[in-house]
Amino acid sequence: MTLPRTVKIVEVGPRDGLQNESKLISVPERRRFIDMLSQTGLSVIEVGSFVSPKWVPQMAKTGDVYEGIEKKAGVQYPVLVPNQQGLEKALEAGVTEIAVFVAASETFSQKNINCGIQESFERLDPVVKGAREIGMPIRGYISCVMGCPYEGDVPSGKVVEVAERLLKLGCLEISLGDTIGVGTPLQTRELIRNLSKTVSIEQMAVHFHDTYGQALANILTALEEGISVIDSSVAGIGGCPYAKGASGNVVTEDLLFMLTGMGIETGVHMDKLLKCGKYITKLLGINPRSKVAIAMGD
């Protein structure tokens, strides 16, 4: 077994985290949160998403947030873009990197964005083409890669099909999202091995929710399969509003503790990360979800 020597942590707290917390955080507070994260050693921090504030009020004024943060050299600040209008707003704000998303479940796609998988790709086509024309890096998210709240099990073949389409469209990296946190280590290994037959391991990332306490075990399995890009959320904030009971992304602090203990380099400083978690949980009025923070009394 050969584990990666280094791992890139993609911090999704300001986007996937905050968009699924009930309390709204102001633009200045979101900016400060991101600026604090920029000082931790993280190399990728997802700033927000250009979705309709009618449907996701937590992400309102993402352009203002992006324009006001201090861009640290060597740190990427991608945003999620759902459609052509979102791309236009992102470009107006000066965004240089975007992410797009699709689901591996037809029903989830309908419930989430009111269209099926095929139509979602048709919506994304002009977005990705527009971004590629100006040389903008694009990441692709796939939701429900291990289970759907409406359909149950999701065949790995469906995930492979969607991933291949995203790569053909122009995405450079594919993040595999266990949206409702039902995946287990053997399922994780099977999915990655099936996908690796046509998609390079270097183009894969994993995005686990910890609904059933399986996230770190699944991440370990992904590491054993060679994956070295992992999404996480500081303090474990967020979840998925379309998936009942799916509260909580894998916690960045807990992930960092595991990786550090395994001798895997991330460049992230735990003390600074804990301060970020403390700041955002206080603003949200929630208890710490990080086991490391609780154990260390932060």
Describe the structure.
The protein has 298 residues and is α/β, with parallel strands linked by helices. It has one domain: TIM Barrel. The chain has helices at residues 13-17, 27-38, 62-68, 84-93, 106-113, 117-133, 156-169, 185-195, 215-224, 252-261, 270-284, 291-295, and strands at 8-11, 44-45, 48-49, 79-80, 98-103, 138-143, 173-178, 204-208, 229-232. The strands form two sheets. A six-stranded parallel sheet has the order 3-4-5-6-7-8. It has a three-stranded parallel sheet with strand order 2-1-9, with helices on one face. Helix 3 runs parallel beside helix 4 (84-93). The protein is globular, with a radius of gyration of 18 Å. The mean pLDDT is 94.
Topology:
Layout: E1 8-11, H1 13-17, H2 27-38, E2 44-45, E3 48-49, H3 62-68, E4 79-80, H4 84-93, E5 98-103, H5 106-113, H6 117-133, E6 138-143, H7 156-169, E7 173-178, H8 185-195, E8 204-208, H9 215-224, E9 229-232, H10 252-261, H11 270-284, H12 291-295
Parallel strand pairs: 1-2, 1-9, 3-4, 4-5, 5-6, 6-7, 7-8
Helix pairs in contact: 2-3, 2-11, 3-4, 7-8, 8-9, 10-11
